[in-house]
Amino acid sequence: MSPPDDARRHSPHRTASARRIAGLALPALVVLAAEPVYVLVDTAVVGHLGPVPLAAVAIGGTVMSMGVWFGTLMAYGTTGRAARHFGAGDRAAAVAEGVQASWLALAFGALLAILGLVGAEPLAALIAGDPETAAAAAGWLRIAVLGAPGLLLAAAGNGWMRGVQDTRRPLWIVLGANVLSAVLCPVLVYPAGLGLAGSAIANVTAQTLGGLLFLAALIRETRALRPVPSIIVRQVVLGRDLLIRGAAFQACFLSATAVAARFGVAAVGAHQIVLQLWFFAALTLDAVAIAAQSLVGAALGAGDTDEARDVARRVTFAGGLAAVAFALAAAAGSSVVPGWFTPDESVHAQAAIIWPYFVALLPLAGIVYALDGVLIGAGDVAFLRTLTVLSALLGFLPAIWLAYALNLGLGGIWAGLALFTFARFTGLLWRWRSPHWLITGTTR
């Protein structure tokens, strides 16, 4: 269904200038970075308790990262759907997407909390191996999982607010919750004498507070808070495709680390350093993708395919430009940056092998992440799912296991990542140039 001409003329999406893209992307970047920065603070605080508590937080955090992953998928799915309604001039319907996403968040959050409480000990034992570490991790996890409903509520809140092009309120909510947690963590761990449990309580406090603040913002927007199963089902279908796509990424990067480990300690150390830098760049570039989701969804909701194409061009240029800046910085720091992580010369030597891949792939990755955001905003998630799975099954995974079989070392692994990235780049560029993603109206 296309909106009337009047809705198109007065649609709030018609401000997709470079300034508007930056205005959406920069607050989103701070929100994206807040959680990793807090994890670093938490790790530093717990690290002074000794190696066992530190290992326990690492293991428990790995399990909790699944909740963060679900939350990211929920936020991305909600943004595009809310943005279409917002672009059509129907803010109430955009907020309604947030209401249904919040019900979904509460249901999934409660389920994750129950599963975490029941499965804390076997999960920790499976990952840890060492009984002392497993026991400590299980204790931390039993407390930390209580924050899952708040974590997912915050994700749903982020989703609909980005859809209505409001990235400032999420910025203050997320910053406030994480600053509180960063203050609480050392206080509860040391002066209060709670040790490792204090870290988990600080996590739960921040996640619950953040979820409640997003919920309060939703209630201020609307009183229509009843669940609507038909909308929830459509959100679940969209989330399913994003989940499959995300699982393909997980399989690729876990396999790459497993193969790197078979080439020796220095190789896996270098791979870990460069891969984390790759993820950091992806995190930053994802802010541009979030702006794309909001602006493209709004343009298509308003029935304006020309504007959607223009937004796609602008955000793709912005993503590529940002990635080139990253690549230049990475090239300049090739002899310095690995030393920030380790003094081991053997690791530095292995990092030097894959550094050219890292630098060369960044500009392509910037365009890929931006076009991901364009197609997520357009609701073209089924195509993204299929492209990612095929690129993994026919490119990355065969290449890295071939690298292991032929003893090609880290260069073979990163050649696989290059193949994966280029396959996605080619597929996304073809889709972007086609009319298939330009479906207008408030639903896809």
From TrEMBL:
Keyword Oxidoreductase applies: no
Residue intervals passing through the bilayer: 21-41, 53-76, 101-120, 140-159, 171-190, 196-219, 242-265, 277-303, 315-341, 353-371, 383-406, 412-430
Keyword Transmembrane helix: yes
Membrane topology: Multi-pass membrane protein
Compartments where located: Cell membrane
Primary residence: membrane
Pfam families reported for this sequence: MatE (PF01554)
GO molecular function: antiporter activity; xenobiotic transmembrane transporter activity
A GO CC term assigned to this protein in UniProt: plasma membrane
InterPro entries: DinF-like, MATE_fam, MdtK-like
Alphabetically ordered keywords of this record: Cell membrane, Membrane, Transmembrane, Transmembrane helix, Transport
Homology family: Belongs to the multi antimicrobial extrusion (MATE) (TC 2.A.66.1) family.
Protein name per its UniProtKB record: Putative efflux protein, MATE family
Protein's organism: Actinoplanes derwentensis
